[in-house]
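Schema walkthrough. Field components (list of strings):
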Amino acid sequence: MELLIQQIFNGLTIGSVYTLVALGLTLVFGILHVPNFAHGAFYMVGAYITLMMMVGFGFHYWIAIIASVAVVALLGVVTQQLIFKKLEGADGMRMMVAAIGILLFLEAFGQFMWGTEYHRMDTPYGSVVNLFGLTVTLQRLLIIVAAVILMLALHFFLTKTMIGAAIVAMAQNREGAFLVGINANQVAWLTFAIAGGLAAAAASLASPINLVFPTMGNLVIMKAFVIIIIGGMGSIPGAILGGYLLGLTESIGATYISSDYKDVIAFLLLVVILTAKPTGLFTKGVQ
Amino acid sequence: MLNVLSKRVLIGIIAVAAVLFPLVFPNMYVLQLLTLVFIWSIAVYGFNIISGYVGYLSLAHAGFFAIGAYGLGLLTTKAGMSYWLSLLLAVLITSIAGALVGVIALRTKSHFFAIYTMCVGVIVYLLIDKWDSLTGGVRGLIGIPAPSNIGPITFDTLTSQYYLALFFLILTVFLCYRIVHSLLGRTFIAIRNSEELAKTIGISIMKNQLLAFTLSALFAGLSGALYASFIRFIGPQISAITVTFEMLMYLLVGGIGTLAGPLVGTLIVISLTQSLQFLEEYRMLIFGPVVVLLVLYYPRGITGSINGYVQRKKQQRVKIANEEHEVKRKVGEAG
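Field assembly_structure (string):
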């Protein structure tokens, strides 16, 4: 029983990270209408920048995270303005290939700048605490709490502010948004900035319990794809639900089925879902 | 008519040049490189059928390549079958795998298809990586035999392997040529341009897509099997998504949806990579932006752009001829 609770806790930790990545991906999907394959590279760059700020410049963990969020948000804006903006109206294949090109570049850039070896990220929250009879590291607790705070912040931003509402409007109905005079370009770069920032925050939070290496984003981004398909492309509650669901499934599956094949679970889940319902779960309207 | 003839003549000249090449330049390094180019090209031709002509971005291609490679490797080393039977079976297994995946994957559209096939590719990778007892896991599979003799023909030298790869490449190009220049090829392109329109003229979308997908898996499997017996060692890394991306890059540089594109792209990118050896690890620093620039400004790649140029010239010539004709007619009327 205690093992199960421990695994549920671990599942929530991993799920929080997945959710943050999937949220950015799903927001960008609303703008691009294709999955942004480069999102995993943003995640990786975010982790390295936090690490560099801490090791290279000796900044505190939190300051390093804020710097990393800012840099990756900027990176998102740059890719949007330089590349995706020019591909507006192009077919989906071209956008996907452009995103793959960005991914290839950023991954090579990561290797070039920081090498291929695995790095460990220190955290001021490495201590172990006892929570309702459960021994957990503070960092894992921090991940869960920080993710919830970020999600709430995103929620209030999207529902209570004008700009947030504009982002939602763009995702719901592009033409309608244009008709009411929404500045498409502004919404697009802002969305990329938010998505990049979320990816950097997720990576910086998760790195102390994982490792930092150039291809660290690959598996995470692919799982984020699975999540946004489970949750419905472009749906924010869906991404949150899917993220936690996948985290829990993986962590419980790893304990009770096989830890070797825990990564397969996500992809098998997706294959099963798309086999049963080719347009994904919770898809609105006709594709 | 003249155009078709000259195209055939051009293909003939290139084929003869490729056949004579080892006799003129018996350089081991170059031969090794070209053999690899030929083998990879076969896979890229497969990629081109589904992604170039039918317009579905299939990200499971490295997975099929690996199924072909591991199929041959396992059948020869573990089951002890003869090379040629294993090659045939490996290609057959990959095609069946392709058909099975296709039946389900093709029900999904555009980005769902891309993500679905990507997941299939990852599952293949993870299975190869984790199924230690069968595939050897991360240690890989070693001791894969070279092609065995057919009568008096042996395949123990590099030159003979070069000819073997060339033979299969020519076969692949020939098949693709026949497909593209037949009703089937037109059907594929019709589906790419508009599925709804294709449907209204009575094209069975699913049947044709499935055929294209299976063919693409077949060529990937053939390429993988040849690769396994040429390199003699395979690891799970050959099924990684990055290999699919690499093939996508070859296709994009050469020209997606063109007949010469796969070979041109593979040849150029692999030779460039080899000549920039010092960049090996970081070659994507250059090729990543190249992919983006191509998508932005030359979405049809090298071959596509040349074709477009030739087409425009021809149209211009026709236009000028028409104008001259018009002028003559007017002059005639006036006179």
